[in-house]
Amino acid sequence: MKDVMFNEESRRYFEPSLFAEVDFKTFQKQIFNKYKGKKSIEYNEVLGFVLQETDYLAKDLDKVLKNIGVTKINNLKQKYNPFLNFLSHNSNSLLLRESPTCNYGTTLLEMPITAKKPKINYKEFNLIDGKRRLLVSQINDGSIIKRFDKTPLPKRLTDVICPHFLELKWAYGCPYDCAWCYLKGTFRFHNGKILPGFKVKDLDKIRLHVEEFLDKVDEPEILNTGEIADSLMYENSATPFSKFIIPMFEKQKKHKVLFVTKSNNVKNLLDINPHKQVIISFSLNADKVAERWEKGAPSVTRRIAAAEKLIKAGYEVRIRIDPMVPILDWRKYYINLIDSIFAKFVPERITLGSLRGLQSTINGTRGKGKDDSWIKYLTESSNWGKKIDSNLRYRTYLVIIEYLKKRYNFTELALCKETKTIWQKLGMDYKKIRCNCVR
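and the corresponding structure tokens:
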């Protein structure tokens, strides 16, 4: 199914139970085939298999059991791990068997989870700086923590530079609906829309994987929570993601969590102390660009104000000016953006990126009622999709980089998914890259 529907760039994000209604019949059969012929299987053992070895979640297992009539154990007054009986191989049902000592009365969702610890997978990676290092490749199936390694080491001048970093894939989607968002290509089976807005994954599974990573991995890493989701999109919920994830990172001193956002909703972050293991990165753009193509996001002024609050509260704040678009009078608008930032605070680093589009993104943002006017700027090809003309990209970067150096003496700069040619023309050493997603 996945091979038919998606190409490689989209398939890496595909997780069946997140993008469509769960096929309970197939899922139930998958579980039954695993345990057929066995009796008195503990619920937690089955749950451990689901979380660690399949693409389904705890709630999917509970829905399957509910679907066949197993919903409650009545009057439970003590912790209890129920037994499941898997009947003959001709049966398609699961039955919950009562423990001899069981008093009835709770739902399966209340059962304690004692799943096996997830497996940390390591792999030797060839790095941008020419070194080779043994690093974490993923935790279990990579559905929560996985190294983004889809950009090969640059060989040709048109190859893009992108160091491999770890994703913390806690959710997918975004509520802001920017015209060029690559998630529209990744999730294009929603007809170019990111529906139902966003989805958060199973928090128990996230906690299990993150805590094991933080406890066992010695090499300091940054875990990026904003590659396939806006990191602050869940802050108005009863369980804000910031308050869920940051305390886990604050229990140790090796690893940091990276939030990438266009939101200005930082009230929960301001309540959290300590926050030494946290990096907040705001995506900004020139006002005229944001007004036209980032219509669902808060204004650039509000984002800058939110970043200023976090700087004053002691957070490490980074800025992404990406994607830069060469609209009429672009020099004026992007220099105004730089001045607006530095009038309020000095970021820890700035990463610049130009407009680009994977073919799946371009396809997903075209159609009736969609503003695809930005596509006209894309005239060149790279190993990461279409790009603006290289000479124009070079001039855009050069103007901003020189202005930052001369006006603000600021040199903590990097480029995002930019070609080897551009790095060399700007006199920047890509092998020493310190961009948004790395330490």
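(Above: one complete record from the training split.) Residues 184 and 192 are 5 Å apart (CA to CA).
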